[in-house]
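Batch manifest line 551
LIGAND: magnesium ion
JOB: complex structure
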Amino acid sequence: MDSQMVSMMWEGVLETLYMTLWSTGLAYVIGIPLGVILVVTEEGGIRPIKPLHDILGFFVNIFRSIPFIILLFLMLPLTLILVGTQIGSIAIIPPLTASAAPYVARMVESSLKEVDAGVIEAAKSMGASTWQIIYKVLLPEAKPSLLVGAAIVMTTILGYTAMAGMCGGGGLGAIAANYGYYRWQADVMIVATILLVVIVQIIQELWMRGAKASDKRIR
Amino acid sequence: MAENMIELRGLGKTFKTSSGSVTALEDINLSIGEGEIFGIIGLSGAGKSTLVRCINYLEIPTSGSVIFQGKNLGTLSDQELREARREMGMIFQQFNLLAQRNVLRNVTFPLELSGVSKTEAKERAIELLRMVGLEDRIKAYPAQLSGGQKQRVAIARALATRPKVLLCDEATSALDPNTTKQILELLKRINRELGVTVIVITHEMAVIEAICDRVAIIDQSHIAEEGPVSQIFSEPKTRIGKQLILGDAGKNVEFGERKVRLVFDGNVSQEPVIANLVLACKTPVNIVFANMKEIDGKSFGQMVIELPADETERSRALHFLAANQIKYEEVR
Ligand SMILES: Nc1ncnc2c1ncn2[C@@H]1O[C@H](COP(=O)(O)OP(=O)(O)OP(=O)(O)O)[C@@H](O)[C@H]1O
Ligand SMILES: [Mg+2]
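JOB STATUS: finished
ARTIFACT:
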């Protein structure tokens, strides 16, 4: 492997991380409020609003069942408006975000539901408002579980960034596909793939350790 | 007793469930005075938890009203209700501490909610933690504490906003007898030193006897009877009252025709009553159950005896009791 190859791989790593982190971050910016609303408005929740809960749940399910590759094409016009282009690594961020957000919403929902109802009751007895219960009880108490969820979401999104090649984007996935599949350079494909696996492992390991360390329930 | 802190008027609560409606409370009328320790006792499912949760409007009653310091809680806005709740602390059987916050930050939590500054909140929290004897554990997390310590933290947290009332829902039911005693002592001290009105919900008569001034017995959604603890103890009027008074140890006592419960107050308990009875009436009696209690600083004894089957021997025994001014009642 020459130095040109090394720098290409390095660029691939950076681009993969770039797409993954942006998409994950944005998916959480959208997914957390959705997950919170789902939990808060459900029947028996801290502020039940059944119609809102049902409608939101319906749309989340619809979006979750659209295959990513279809979403990628369906969203092209919107992608152009959002990022100014339909090609390149940046162009895959909006569809990745859109397909991950509903998934994140469900993950957040299930994490928040794990919070002990007794603790919420105690907060209410102290005169906490709905908003205070959300940001001082639900989210902090669910933090370890939310972090575990984030590790899963991030590694899943990382896998999907391989699709960036479909719209002329870069990253390790695209390199593996281009060199391995189209040019029959198996060595490049193998190196890129190994790098992807290693990155997933590192993220998974570090992140899970962080999640565990942040949990004050275990000791 | 000073003026009423809490008044419940015709309080009722019916839950609508998918399988029909469940009446948890019906026509509850109670007045709880300022500075008293009021007990509410009942069997599981009687409606005790629903009753305390109605007192701070965590549960909205379906009929009647809750008057707290002269204000009808049902007429308050959301904001006013939250402010009223800050004047009523609450502790729970399962402690309900925030698992991701350390002891100090659990106690400052209600102060954060009401917008007290950080330094002031910390000062107040440390003062309270000193009072409950946990000032050296302020950095610990709930998972690192014993049940008794967790309940102490919960008590400190409930008192942070200087409430007028402390609601305790089965606060000692998850604790061993020794720890229970310590927590009850603490509640008594809080009542005495801070003048906080304490409402104690329990299914154990021992808890009531240990700290309460007055007690209400709740049975199947209704108040069966209420009064000073010593009065309910020596003269329970209802079957449920008699049952609860005999307590856990007496739960194997089968009620029946020939069973009589005797109550001795401090003075009589020196004398060998049963021996005298057997000698005087020349009839054997069977002691089914007996124990001693301390209520309001006075010692009380209670005993369930089984009288002979013979009618005349039985009435002779009862006459003996009456003549010797021993309170008795048939338990059936
Ligand atoms: N949210 C609810 N929905 C439906 N029924 C309820 C609800 N909460 C309580 N109940 C019913 O109301 C009755 C009284 O319940 P409550 O919890 O007040 O009893 P309790 O005296 O506190 O019992 P325990 O000693 O077991 O805690 C029970 O029959 C219970 O099933
Ligand atoms: Mg209960």
